[in-house]
Amino acid sequence: MSCDQRWLAVWGKPRTLNPDNPQDSNLTIVDLQDPRVTPALGFERGIFGVEYLKTPARAIVATDSGALLDLERRVRLAPPAQFDFGDPAYLRESCAPFPNKTYRRYPP
């Protein structure tokens, strides 16, 4: 969940398993101020986390190659190779932990 508690990212396996690529994962972005059903974004690899950026309505999806998302439109902005995630324009937000900021089904 983002620090402002507006955005929630939920990911998991698609309803139908792809036998040719069982690592497929889906990501759904939920705007808690406008909770409507939105289509899931598909990824060909596993998702390890979502990092929200200080830039409003942007997030980085932690996969093997990474992806930058526009949360408002719920779309990928460009192929990951075009982004330097170390660039200061992509500073991650930080805040004190709060209940439900993260949820791990299997604790580390």
The span between the termini is 19 Å
Rg over CA atoms: 14 Å
Q: Name the structural class.
A: mainly beta
Helix content: under 10%
**Overall pLDDT, averaged?**
79
Taken as a percent bin, the fraction of beta residues is: 25-35%
Total count of helical runs of at least 4 residues = 0
Report the principal-axis shape.
globular
Brief rundown of the structure:
The chain is mainly β and 108 residues long. The chain has strands at residues 7-12, 25-31, 41-43, 49-52, 58-62, 67-70, 75-76.
Description:
Strand 6 (67-70) and strand 7 (75-76) form a beta hairpin. This protein is 0% helix and 29% strand. The strands form two sheets. The protein has a four-stranded antiparallel beta sheet with strand order 4-5-6-7, with no helix packed on it. The mean pLDDT is 79. It has 108 residues and is mainly β.
Helix and strand topology:
Elements (H helix, E strand, L loop, with lengths): L6 E6 L12 E7 L9 E3 L5 E4 L5 E5 L4 E4 L4 E2 L32
Antiparallel strand pairs: 1-2, 2-3, 4-5, 5-6, 6-7
Label this structure with key terms.
three-stranded antiparallel sheet; 108 residues; four-stranded antiparallel sheet; mainly beta; globular
